[in-house]
Structures are given as structure tokens and as C-alpha cells.
Design a protein that fits this description.
Elements (H helix, E strand, L loop, with lengths): L6 E3 L11 E6 L11 E16 L7 H12 L3 E11 L5 H19 L6 E8 L6 H14 L4 H10 L8 E9 L2 E11 L10 E7 L5 H14 L15 E6 L15 H21 L7 E9 L2 H13 L1 H8 L5 H9 L11 E4 L2 E5 L2 E2 L4 H8 L3 E7 L5 E8 L3 H8 L4
Parallel strand pairs: 4-5, 8-9, 10-14
Antiparallel strand pairs: 1-6, 2-3, 3-4, 3-9, 6-7, 7-8, 10-15, 11-12, 11-14, 12-13
Helix pairs in contact: 1-2, 2-3, 5-6, 7-9
Length: 411
């Protein structure tokens, strides 16, 4: 039995399902609409915390504050407060002061130490936060929190920007004979590219786990999930993935030497992969999820680079939108990925339809390909026959609406 089969979906679960967590959200006036724009997750005990951040050189002020909190608290957090509608990025010394002020206000509202609080922001770059509204909103957050699905729903709504749908997932598994829950919530729709993208993601679990083990697992899992999605090739200034573990499930502390570690790691990856795919599926203006699997590369890293090149190609994305079985765009992306490829041995399939074999065209049913490409999900498979490396990347098609949405983002 594979480890993947050892966890089970919890369709009714949310980020508040793991023991010890509450969440909530409200509208404090950062958005022009009345949609929630401020939210928080609170743990009743100090939770083991781990985080990864955007690789963009221009990193928003909240990331600096959260890095400091995680480091200064010995990887223990009690809360994270998040706003949408304003990224607090490229805002200079005032923006940094505002991020620290958000942390201080949340610590006071929840009765915590400042280093027990993380902060995150998402939205328009280059505008100062209206701190009077933020402070007033934070004062109202404690009353808005709940340890149920409604609290999670309000939090999910609070972190969205151009997203059309909320993104959440929950699974359960047994560790040391005790039920452990892992859940996640995320936002992301545009400015999405590998090495963290315009996304915020939060994972909660009630598992007991060593701090370094959680940080290592988070980094490794990010490499094969969130770092394998792209919508438009732009990497944001604000991306953050934060995991918190309350330890209240009562299991023996997890680490790679634990008998149930592989099952926990598989469940953790499933949560992150589900959120990553949901972000790709909800790409701005997108009509289809695109999944690219590359096999037979000289290494896994090489396969990742090629898969990301294909799924990020504007020409490939446009062809998918137009339901055009133009495999030439795929092979061109393979060839420009900068990785070792034998130009005589490449196979390509669209779903189950073989379009290229041994780098030579194969006659195929154009009508069947058209029907397949009009589906909700398009799977592109590439076998290089050049090694054992394998990887999968996710993205979406490129539509007219993507341009419309981003042309009017500030207005």
C-alpha cells in the first residue's frame, strides 16, 4: 500500500478543523467593494511555524516582519493577520513601520507577544496602507474569529484579490494511532510564476512536529507544488507560504525518523498540491487548467525546468485557449528550456492522443484533439527518453480576459 492511500479527504474541513485553530475575517475599508479585506488565524497554543517567501528582490514589508517573528520566537507563532487590497510593497520606511504597527496592533488585540504574530499583505503595489482603517479592523478581529467553517469561510474571503473562488483543502490521517488533520487555504490568480508567485497560502495542522522537520518539509514540498505553477511569468513581491502546527493531536513528535513520517509528508504534499493547482486553475481570465508532465529527463531538476518552460509559454497557453493542437509550440518550448534533450527521441501526447513520436509527427484525429482541448483540464505529456527525471507543472490558458483584468487592475 502506498503512503498516498493512508490519508483521507475531509471535504467539510477547513483551516479551523485542526485542533486549536480559529479564523475569521471582516471588511475594514481597504477594498472599494464590501468584500472582506482583513483576516486572521489564531492558535490557542504556541504553534510550531515554518515559512517560505518570494524570491523577488523587491520583498514587501510584511515579509520582513514575519521573518523576524519566526526567527525571534524560535519558530513558534500564535497568530497571523492578513490584509488584501493593498500589498504594502515598495512603500519605503513608512511601509515597514506600518507592517510593524499591524503586528503590534494584532498582538494587543489578541493578548500576545509581538513576536508571536506574523503579518501578510496582498493587493496593489506602491500605495501606503490607510492605517486608521487597518487598526480599527484589527480591533474587531477577535470578535470575528470562530473555530468552525464559518470562521474559515470569512478568512478565505478576506485574502482574495482578483480570485474568482476561494481555495481550501483538508485531509486526515492516523499518526501513532491518533487522528491528525492537515488543512490549507490560499489566494492567487495573477502575477503567478515559479519560485513563489502572487499567492498567499496558509497550512494548519494539529500534528506534533519538530520545527526543523516542518521547515525542511515545507521547503521540499514547495519545490514540487507551488514552485511548479505559473499563470503569467511574473513573480510577486509579497508571496508567502506559512505553516503552523499546534501539536494538539497528541502524537509523538514527527521527524523523518518517525514510522508515520512518509504518510504525513504525502498528506502535506497533497494539501499543497491541491492549493497550487487551484491557483493555476483560477488564473486571471483562465478557462482551462493545463498540466504538463515531463518524463525521461536527465534529472528531476531538468524535468522541472522543461515542464515549467512549456506551461509558461505564451504560445502554448494561447494554443490551449484556442483548442489548437499545435504540438510545434510544445516542442519549441522543450528545445529552448536550456536543458539536455536528444532531438531525435521526443514523444508528445495531448491527453491520450499521440501527436509526436521519436520527434516525428504522428497522424491524429484533429476533431478528437479539438474536443479534448475544449475540456476543463488539458494534460500535456512529454517523454524525452533521455534519463529517469520526471516532474509535473501546472498553469492555465491565456485569454482575452487576462489582458482586460490586468489593464484595469488599479481602476
Amino acid at each position: 500500500m502506498g503512503v498516498v492511500s493512508l490519508f483521507r479527504a475531509a471535504p467539510e474541513g477547513s483551516i479551523t478543523t485542526p485542533k486549536g485553530f480559529q479564523a475569521g475575517g471582516l471588511h475594514c475599508g481597504l477594498k472599494k467593494t464590501t468584500r472582506n479585506d482583513l483576516g486572521a488565524i489564531l492558535c490557542e497554543v504556541p504553534a510550531v511555524a515554518a515559512a517560505v517567501y518570494t524570491t523577488n528582490v523587491f520583498q514587501a514589508a510584511p515579509l520582513k516582519v514575519t521573518r523576524e517573528s519566526v526567527a525571534s520566537s524560535g519558530q513558534r507563532l500564535r497568530a497571523v493577520v492578513v490584509n488584501s487590497g493593498n500589498a504594502n510593497a515598495c512603500t519605503g520606511a513608512q511601509g515597514e513601520a506600518d507592517a510593524y504597527a499591524m503586528r503590534a496592533a494584532a498582538a494587543e488585540a489578541f493578548g500576545l507577544g509581538e513576536h508571536e504574530v506574523a503579518v501578510a499583505s496582498t493587493g496593489v503595489i506602491g500605495e501606503l496602507l490607510p492605517m486608521d482603517r487597518v487598526r480599527a479592523g484589527i480591533e474587531g478581529l477577535p470578535a470575528a474569529l470562530a473555530a468552525n467553517g464559518e470562521g474559515a469561510e470569512q478568512f478565505c474571503q478576506a485574502i482574495l484579490t482578483t480570485d474568482l473562488v476561494k481555495k481550501e483543502v483538508c485531509v486526515k490521517l492516523d499518526v501513532d494511532g491518533r487522528e491528525v488533520t492537515i488543512a490549507g487555504a490560499a489566494k492567487g490568480s495573477g502575477m503567478i510564476h515559479p519560485n513563489m508567485a502572487t499567492m498567499l497560502a496558509f497550512v494548519t495542522t494539529d500534528a506534533a512536529i519538530e520545527p526543523q522537520a516542518l521547515q525542511s518539509l515545507l521547503g521540499q514540498t514547495t519545490d514540487v507544488t507551488f514552485n511548479m505553477i505559473t499563470v503569467d511569468g511574473d513573480t510577486s513581491t509579497n508571496d508567502m507560504l506559512l505553516a503552523m502546527a499546534s501539536g494538539l493531536a497528541g502524537n509523538r513528535e514527527l521527524s523523518p525518523g518517525h514510522a508515520d513520517w512518509d504518510a504525513f509528508a504525502a498528506a502535506f504534499r497533497h494539501v499543497c498540491e491541491t492549493l497550487a493547482k487551484a491557483i493555476a486553475r483560477d488564473g486571471e481570465g483562465a478557462t482551462r487548467l493545463v498540466e504538463v508532465t515531463v518524463r525521461g529527463a536527465v534529472s528531476d531538476n531538468s524535468a522541472r525546468a522543461i515542464a515549467k518552460t512549456i506551461v509558461g509559454s505564451s504560445l502554448v497557453k494561447s494554443a490551449v485557449f484556442g483548442a489548437d493542437a499545435n504540438w510545434g509550440r510544445i516542442i519549441a518550448a522543450v528545445g529552448r528550456a536550456g536543458e539536455p534533450v536528444n532531438p531525435e527521441t521526443v514523444d508528445i501526447k495531448l491527453g491520450d492522443i499521440v501527436v509526436l513520436e521519436g520527434s516525428r509527427p504522428v497522424p491524429f484525429d484533429e476533431d478528437a484533439a479539438l474536443a479534448y482541448l475544449k475540456g476543463d483540464t488539458v494534460n500535456i505529456s512529454v517523454d524525452l527518453h533521455n534519463g529517469q527525471g520526471e516532474a509535473t507543472a501546472w498553469g492555465c490558458d491565456l485569454t482575452y480576459d487576462y489582458v482586460r483584468i490586468n489593464a484595469a487592475y488599479r481602476t
